[in-house]
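Service request form, structural biology core

Requester: graduate student, group of Dr. S.
Request type: structure prediction, single chain
Budget code: on file
Notes: please return the result as C-alpha cells.

Sequence provided:
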Amino acid sequence: MFGLYAVLGIISLLLYRPLSPAIEATYEASSAPLQQSRKLVFGMAALFGMDSFGTGFLVQSLLALWLYQAFAISVTTAASILFWSSICSAISYLVAVPIAARIGLINTMVFTHLPSNILLILIPFAPDLTTAIGLLLSRSALSQMDVPTRSSYVMAVVTPEERPAAASVTAVPKTFAWAAGSMISGYLLTLSTFGWPLLIAGIVKGTYDILLLIKFQKVRPPEEVSAATG
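Core staff response, request fulfilled:
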C-alpha cells in the first residue's frame, strides 16, 4: 500500500514536469505580499481553519473505526463504504462548476456545504447501517463542492501578485486545525461508540458556513460583479 502510494507520487511528478513557467502570472517584484488584501485574507484563513478543524474529526481511518465500533462491520465493508463516498465526493467537484457559474462562488460554497453538514449531524443518530450509509453518501455528494469554489474565490479576490502569499496564509491554519481535530476525534472514540466526532464536526463546519455567508457574501469576485452589471 505504501509502495503504491510512492509510485503514484512519482507519476504525479512526471505529469507536472512538462508544465511551462508561462502558465504562471507575471509578478511585480515591488509588490508586498498581501499588502492590499491583508484583512480579507486573514479573515478567510481564520474561517478556513475552523472548517478544517471540523474536517479533522472525519479522517477516513477514524470514520472507518467509528463504523466498525457502531455497526461491527468488516474491514472490506468499511473500505467499500469509503470508496463510494469518495466517488460521490469526486463527482461533487465537477458539479460545483455549473452551480457556481449560476449562483456565484460564495453561495455555492455555503448552500451546498451547509446541507452536507446537516446530514453529517444526523449520521450518529442513524438506527441502522443502511441509514448511516445513505446519509454518508448523500453528505459526500455535497461536501466537496466548496473545495474548488473556495480556491477559485481566494484567487479571484486578491491581485495576481498576492496569490502565492494568499494561498500560503489560508493553507497553513487549515493544516494545524486539521491535526487538532483528528487528535480530539481519536480521544472521543476511546470514550464512547456514539458518533461524537461526526456530531461535533457537523456543528463546527455548519457554523463555519453561516459565518462565511455573513462575512463574505458581499465580497464578490470581479467576474461576478462584471456579470451582474453587464
